[in-house]
Amino acid sequence: MTNETDLPGWKHIYSGKVRDLYVPAEMPDGEVSNRMLVVASDRVSAFDHVLSPGIAGKGELLTTLSMWWFAQLAGLDGGRSIPNHLVADGETEIPHAVSGRSMHVRGLQMYPVECVVRGYLTGSGWAEYQASGTVCGIALPDGLNDGDRLPEPIYTPAYKAPMGEHDENISYEQTVELVGADVAAALRDTSLEIYERAAALAEAHGLILADTKFEFGADAEGVLTLADEVLTSDSSRYWDAAAWASGTTPKERMASFDKQIVRDWLAANWNKEGTPPELPTEVVERTSARYRELIEMLTER
């Protein structure tokens, strides 16, 4: 059986909490490759820990969803085509061991900014709003409740910290300091454009895209290019629109299609000290089912 880090024709260079990166095997150490293989594993993380067991099939599900969204954003939804990092099919053979859960992509000069867009008030934003009436320092109207739609989507970037450190929310002005005024504006405007297009498409399929995050880089010609995963259950909050409209409690309104099931179980069964406990089979199976249900709702109606 082929190991994850031993793929014919590819050399493993990095493993994150969820994804593994490879460059062509002939690439000399230390050189920057113009193409890579991004492999999504079945690993699941929460509270900065990789948990056990993983979610069977998760890597393939997330890759399927990313690829579907990349296609929509290439103009299939009627909007302008957003450049992305995918290499055209047929330009290389993906190893069988990771077929279905890997993407052959172009190497980019990545920007150190996580581009977060929020259309609804929840999570850490709700906690901040309760304390100060703001989300990431952006003032919001009084009287909003957990799960409410915002008057308009807001852009709340974060600085992508070096590996092993926590990302940090930053102001738009700080993104200008990091990447320059032109790039900062392009990151903000493109992120908001993608969110609004994706939210409209999701709404047409009975879903609410509450918030999401994007990553971008520059290609060899300096063109802003969408990278990494996009609009997956790991990078976005999706809610059932009917449940949101009819629910009477935050839990009912925000029935999510992501790993919130895992977070909730872990929060109730672990004090965040030492090694996290193993996930029960029932939690793993429910999480997998929600990932699959999201893809079916988006792509099969």
TrEMBL record:
Pfam families xref list: SAICAR_synt
Membership in a protein family: Belongs to the SAICAR synthetase family.
Protein name as it appears in the record: Phosphoribosylaminoimidazole-succinocarboxamide synthase
SUPFAM superfamilies: SAICAR synthase-like
KW Chaperone (keyword) present: no
Annotated pathway: Purine metabolism; IMP biosynthesis via de novo pathway; 5-amino-1-(5-phospho-D-ribosyl)imidazole-4-carboxamide from 5-amino-1-(5-phospho-D-ribosyl)imidazole-4-carboxylate: step 1/2
SAICAR synthetase/ADE2 N-terminal domain boundaries: 12-271
Keywords of this entry: ATP-binding, Ligase, Nucleotide-binding, Purine biosynthesis
InterPro entries: SAICAR_synt/ADE2_N, SAICAR_synth, SAICAR_synthetase_CS
Key word ATP-binding present: yes
Catalytic activities: 5-amino-1-(5-phospho-D-ribosyl)imidazole-4-carboxylate + L-aspartate + ATP = (2S)-2-[5-amino-1-(5-phospho-beta-D-ribosyl)imidazole-4-carboxamido]succinate + ADP + phosphate + 2 H(+)
Listed EC numbers: 6.3.2.6
MF GO annotations: phosphoribosylaminoimidazolesuccinocarboxamide synthase activity
